[in-house]
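Hey, I'm writing a tutorial for new members on how sequence and structure tokens pair up, and I'd like a real worked example in the thread rather than a made-up one. If someone can provide the structure for the chain below, I'll link this post from the tutorial.
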Amino acid sequence: MGGDVRDGGRRPVTRPRHWHRPRHRHRRLSGELLGFAAAGLAAYAADLAVFLLLRGPLGQDPLTAKTLSFLAGCTVAYLGNALGTYRRRATTVALRDYAVFFAVNLAGAAVQLLCLAVSHHGLGLTSARADTVSGLGVGMVLATCLRFWGTRTLVFRNPATEEARRPPWTG
């Protein structure tokens, strides 16, 4: 019972392989999101620790402290993603990949600042709560989506996809 109608029901129905791909893709994507989030949390912790160290005991001005802590956070995030989340895609830890990763993170920071600027100056929402919601709430969510997309598609590209897109060499 339950066999293929074309041969009288004797042969079991076999499902095409692509029927199982969405479930596998969902599992892989959720694992990728968790790894990306873990690397992001470690980067945030590094950013915060370096900033507090530079501002507190070392007495640096806020912009210098934030610049250096941002670099530290980007480095931790890159290493976490290269050696953890995307370890199967990244063949080496390369300066070019780090530069693209850094550019993606700068774009994410710009998105956060833009959300804050639009809310504070454009919409006139000037309370501390409005600044927090726009910069650290809405801005962080949008920036994280941009960073995830950029990290996944621009920095740690899937080698199988890259090979499929590349035209064949005909010599």
